[in-house]
Specification:
The chain folds into two domains: 136 residues, Rossmann fold (3-Layer(aba) Sandwich), CATH 3.40.50; 186 residues, Dihydrodipicolinate Reductase, domain 2, CATH 3.30.360.10. The strands form two sheets. The protein has a seven-stranded mixed sheet, sandwiched between helices. Strands 9-8-10-13-12-11 form a six-stranded mixed sheet. The protein is 31% helix and 25% strand. It starts with a strand and ends with a helix. 45% of the residues are buried.
């Protein structure tokens, strides 16, 4: 098997997870380079990595460049992706900058791996909430079609990066110790003992950018803009692992038992659906895992072909780093 020169750009929560996933999945790496804004050394799972300052010449000899991306900001890929491509690298970008460009494939390997072949140097990694929902819904779409999706997300603080994790930890520590010191806030609100429906920025119509990402990205990945999609995204006081309550209306009738059977044999899905015995997905089940967990599969008795699903996944892994590495795995096939 050929080995590849791989670069990871960014060493935040997602960048570190990319390093972890590359090692755990035994990606065939010849030479691994780690780049960020400045030189330093980091340690991930006891292994030291030398981080180099990112420069245009950094991409010489690189085959695959994994950009960790920064949600809500212009990521490094905006500046450096053209340079990387010029040097012969293929860019896989976790940021939001290229996702909706017509000439850039937006890929969840379990759903639309074939789109990778259309790349012109850049492949985009979808939003974390979109990825886990599409992994669960793609098999159902292929079997029964989808008319409508209504999703409410319960998103962990790690989705806002290392700053969100630090804020939550400091808030709970202050509460536990009785400290009256004001904790700096990196998210839009206090998260301790709180939830808030504010991820991303608000649009003129009252939706948020995070919600519209899920709408537009799902249309693109599933190749069907006719699906009616409505989303509410919510931040919750969970460190890691996004949960989603997803309502779907299918074109053809499919029973909950048929959905369970379908998903049990679907790639990247683990069905946990025995609520009578307290078995259903929770963030503690998915932490550190690459699969998407699905449960609470049930019929809506008030609407023909209406079904509910509860979908949970590690947003740093399958929602970001793992999906990017899986794209790279498909790429080298």
């Amino acid at each position: 098997m050929k080995n590849y020169n791989v670069a990871v750009i960014g060493v935040g929560a997602v960048g570190e997870e990319m390093l972890r996933v590359l090692k755990q999945r035994q990606f065939p790496v010849n030479q691994l380079k780690v780049f960020a804004r400045s030189n330093r050394e980091i340690t991930v799972d006891g292994e030291k990595y030398q981080v180099e300052e990112l420069k245009p010449e950094s991409f010489k000899g690189i085959d695959i460049a994994l950009f960790a991306g920064t949600e809500g900001e212009k990521g490094a890929a905006v500046q450096y992706a053209p340079v990387a491509i010029k040097h012969g690298a293929i860019v896989i970008d976790n940021g939001a900058d290229f996702r909706m460009r017509k000439d850039v494939p937006l890929v969840v390997p379990e759903a639309n791996a074939a789109d990778i072949k259309k790349h012109k140097g850049i492949i985009a990694n979808p939003n974390c909430s979109t990825i886990q929902m599409v992994v669960a819904l793609s098999p159902i779409q292929k079997k029964a079609g989808l008319k409508r999706i209504i999703a409410s997300t319960y998103q962990a603080v790690s989705g806002s990066g290392r700053g969100g994790i630090t804020q939550a930890q400091n808030e709970f520590k202050a509460w536990a110790t009785g400290s009256k010191e004001q904790v700096p806030i990196s998210m839009s609100q206090t998260v301790r003992f709180n939830i808030f429906p504010h991820i991303g920025s608000f649009n003129a119509d009252g939706s948020t950018t995070e919600e519209m990402k899920m709408v537009h990205e799902t249309h693109k990945i599933l190749h069907d803009k006719k699906i009616k999609i409505s989303v509410t995204t919510v931040r919750v006081p969970v460190l890691n692992g996004h949960s989603e309550a997803v309502y779907i209306e299918t074109q053809k009738t499919i029973s909950p038992d048929q959905v369970r059977a379908l998903l049990k044999k679907s790639s990247g899905v683990i069905v946990m659906d025995d609520p009578q015995n307290g078995i259903y997905p929770m963030p503690i089940h998915c932490d550190g895992k690459d699969e998407v967990f699905v449960g609470r599969i049930r019929r809506d008795p008030s609407v023909k072909n209406g079904l509910w699903l509860w979908i949970v996944a590690d947003n740093l892994r399958k929602g970001a780093a793992t999906n990017a590495v899986q794209i790279a795995e498909e790429l080298i096939k």
